[in-house]
Amino acid sequence: MALNLDKQMPDLPKEVVYCKNCVTSNQRPRIRFNEQGVCSACEYAYEKDHVIDWAARERELQELCDRHRSKDGSYDVVVPGSGGKDSAFVAHQLKTRYGMHPLCVTWAPFEHTDIGWYNLQAFVRTGFPNIMAMPDGAVHRKLCRLAFELIGDPFLPFIFGQKAYAYHVALQHDIKLMFYGENGEVEYGGSEKYKYVPKEGPDDWEAQYFKGTSVDELMKVGIERGIFSPDEVSPKSLWWYKPPHPDLIKDAGLEMHWMSYYQKWIPQENFYYASTHTGFVPNNVGRSEGTYTRHSSLDDKVDGFHYYLAFIKFGLGRTTRDCMTDIYRGHLTRDEAVSLVHRFDGEFPAEHYEHFKEYLGITDEQFWEVINAYRAISNVWEEVDGEWKLKVQVS
């Protein structure tokens, strides 16, 4: 556990400061605070309400769809997603409002939850063809363990494929256009490189989404530590985790666009829309672990540990993420959000803990060794009389 491959952490400010408008802090990688102490995500939320010309963005979207729409009903856009509220919203809008013919693709979760599998099936039943990729399970589990131990995010192998798989499908089916949901870097406070453009390419994935580490680097350490044998490592076994060669992308004319550039992104409204049109149902318990909502990130039994590790490393958990968007939309006041963060952020994801340990092949002691190792190198924790406590909380 001595090696930390999350290259974002050393660049974070040592002093923890919270946004004056929402509940996030400067520990969110790549976030920017202005002179008034307001974060870049809040600035962008203001622009969405008061600056951006959404009618002009709508015309851009119409023109984009007009250029790519097939005349014979063949697939003309790839939409990656899980059957969750956001991807369902994007696919249904493209099909019913813009006359497109989406081919939907799913990079499979590590392990489907019952509700996640139900929602994917419900989505398909409402009229959407879907291709699912399930990578080599043995390789995938080992990558998950390595990412947990060396990067502090067991979810990273899923993110590799989530970003890359749609490109492979688009190439195979000669489809030029791909549509993702939101530009998370801009919406939640991160890189502003693509703030005013509708699309990105794979060039910045490693820095912005993969925490500065490629699947090749992760695999290399896995071989050095004896977790992977050399015969498990081949271009074939890693093919889906990496995008096609840049020349192939360029020659094929592939374009990946965000719906959030063209339409104001409101997760709560996406939930209502998907519930109405694609049979989406929320968690069948009062709320999801670690937050007060029950309609987001429902698909994977590993999801809760992705958010929990974010809380351990940055002091920013699942409740913080949900509160940010609800503050932007006026669904919560900041005082209400602070109370929710104090109550639920960092709640331990107990429901799938036993499964998580079994999936990674670790013990309870090994789990907490990793957790405490990341606490020790973070800027947000201190050990007092043998107990870990946050140095400062949003107030």
TrEMBL record:
<dbReference type="InterPro" id="IPR020022">
    <property type="entry name" value="N-acetyl_sugar_amidoTrfase"/>
</dbReference>
<dbReference type="InterPro" id="IPR014729">
    <property type="entry name" value="Rossmann-like_a/b/a_fold"/>
</dbReference>
<protein>
    <submittedName>
        <fullName>N-acetyl sugar amidotransferase</fullName>
    </submittedName>
</protein>
<keyword id="KW-0808">Transferase</keyword>
<dbReference type="GO" id="GO:0016740">
    <property type="term" value="F:transferase activity"/>
</dbReference>
